[in-house]
Task: inverse folding
């Protein structure tokens, strides 16, 4: 039973963070944000960003331990730009696809 409560709390935190982010960067109507598929998509995108952040940190640590300083700086700089750009493009495409699929028209 405790695992279900923790799962619920994690969902609430992810949904709230995603909703705040969407409200800050695009003006979507409340009925769009309340749609179950949109809420699910925002939760999954939040989880994606969290996992990508953890993976990027782990990769950065691994690179730091296995490369000398100059190559590490170059590789980490490229990854620090490329990974967020790719995840941002994926997030936008994913959100647009799901909003279009559930026929919720943002106003």
Result:
């Amino acid at each position: 039973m405790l695992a279900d409560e923790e799962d619920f709390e994690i969902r609430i935190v992810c949904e709230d963070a995603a909703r705040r982010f969407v409200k800050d960067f695009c003006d979507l109507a409340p009925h769009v944000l309340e749609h179950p598929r949109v809420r699910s998509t925002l939760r999954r995108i939040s989880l994606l960003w969290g996992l990508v952040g953890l993976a990027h940190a782990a990769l950065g640590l691994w690179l730091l331990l296995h490369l000398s300083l100059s190559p590490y700086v170059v590789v980490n700089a490229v990854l620090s730009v490329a990974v967020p750009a790719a995840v941002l493009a994926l997030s936008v495409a994913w959100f647009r696809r799901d909003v279009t699929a559930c026929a919720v028209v943002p106003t």
